[in-house]
Design a protein that fits this description.
This protein is about 35% helix and about 30% strand. The radius of gyration is 24 Å and the shape is elongated. It is of the alpha/beta class. The chain has helices at about 40-45, 70-75, 90-100, 105-120, 135-145, 165-180, 190-195, 215-220, 240-245, 270-280, 295-305, and strands at about 1-10, 15-25, 30-35, 55-60, 65, 75-80, 155, 185-190, 200-205, 210-215, 225-230, 250-255, 260-265, 285-290, 310-315.
């Protein structure tokens, strides 16, 4: 459904994105994840035709974004980071206006508006001025305008930014409900949002893709980066020093309960055996030891905060 090949965008001497390659299959919900300034919004703007790339290409449903812009835009619903709503218009009037702009057939406009309102739960405010709505409802109106043309592809750029926890939960539930009805790219830097809604993720850092795979596969690989849980019978001030003396141990921190320790290691299986031997030799009383399964936050920090150069790509 979406194909991105060698996509690059530069601003003067600054490269916003460099040689991006990824694809999104029909019906998939993919998280486009990265820290602020990583190049997420630039990529989304290029795919939707709002911005031209410096090189490379983006295709939607077999159409090149810039060779066939009308064909592409007729298949895409886009919610930019700042919803493009007019605060002095009523919700229904605004959606009708957007539908007309997008070239929806006159005979389908009323039905499409009703469907967009139903999907986004805007029925209770459809006759109100957008400027009188809460931020959460305005965000819903932004999603409704993306849906009003019944697009095959839905691109949401930071759809929950600035919302309170209840509003965030409501938007996540809405995205879940849209699964299967549209091919969705969710661009965000909020990890729980991706965890809750996406089947596959693409992680971008400093304008380059550093990983793309299912969350399960990425966390399985990141487990090899190495976190070990240790529980001893006799807590002692000497535990940290003893553990830090083991080759391959990088960091030791206490957990709750008091007898638990989380140890960052170099990923070698031999390290666990060395830690166990050290604990027994020092007489701390080994009760439990094992690898800690990585989560999405571990993966994200490993690939962005730690700025590792090796990318992890699979199933693109």
């Amino acid at each position: 459904m979406i194909e991105v090949r060698d996509l690059t965008k530069t601003y003067g001497g600054i490269t916003a994105i460099k040689s991006l390659n990824f694809s999104v299959k029909k019906g998939e919900v993919v998280g486009f994840l990265g820290p602020n300034g990583a190049g997420k919004s630039t990529t989304m703007k290029i795919i939707t035709g709002f911005m031209a790339p410096s090189s490379g290409k983006a295709m939607v449903a077999g159409y090149d974004v810039f060779e066939n812009p009308l064909e592409v835009k007729s298949r895409i619903g886009y919610l930019p980071e700042v919803p493009p709503v007019y605060t002095d218009m009523y919700v229904t009037d605004y959606l009708r206006y957007v539908a007309q702009l997008k070239g929806v057939e006159k005979s389908k406009i009323a039905k499409n508006i009703d469907n967009a309102i139903e999907k986004t739960n805007l029925g209770s405010v459809k006759k109100r001025l957008i400027g009188h709505l809460s931020k959460g409802f305005r965000q819903r109106v932004g999603i409704a305008q993306a849906l009003v043309s019944d697009p095959a592809v839905l691109i949401l750029d930071e759809p929950t930014v600035g919302l309170d926890p209840k509003q965030v939960s409501e938007i996540r539930d809405l995205i879940k409900e849209l699964k299967g009805q549209h091919t969705i790219i969710l661009s965000t830097h909020i990890l729980p949002e991706v965890q809750a809604t996406c089947e596959r993720i693409i992680i971008i850092h400093q304008g380059q893709i550093v990983a793309q795979d299912t969350i399960e596969h990425l966390t399985e690989r990141a487990a090899g980066a190495g976190k070990v849980f240790l529980k001893v019978r006799k807590p002692s001030e000497l535990v940290v020093a003893a553990l830090m003396s083991v080759p391959g141990v990088k960091q030791v921190q206490a957990m709750l309960p008091e007898q638990g320790w989380e140890i960052n290691v170099d990923g070698s299986d031999e390290v666990i055996e060395k830690i166990a031997n050290q604990v027994m030799q020092k007489g701390f009383g080994l009760m439990e030891i094992g690898l800690v399964k990585a989560n999405l936050e571990d993966v994200f920090l490993q690939l962005t905060y730690n700025a590792k150069s090796n990318s992890v790509e699979h199933g693109a």
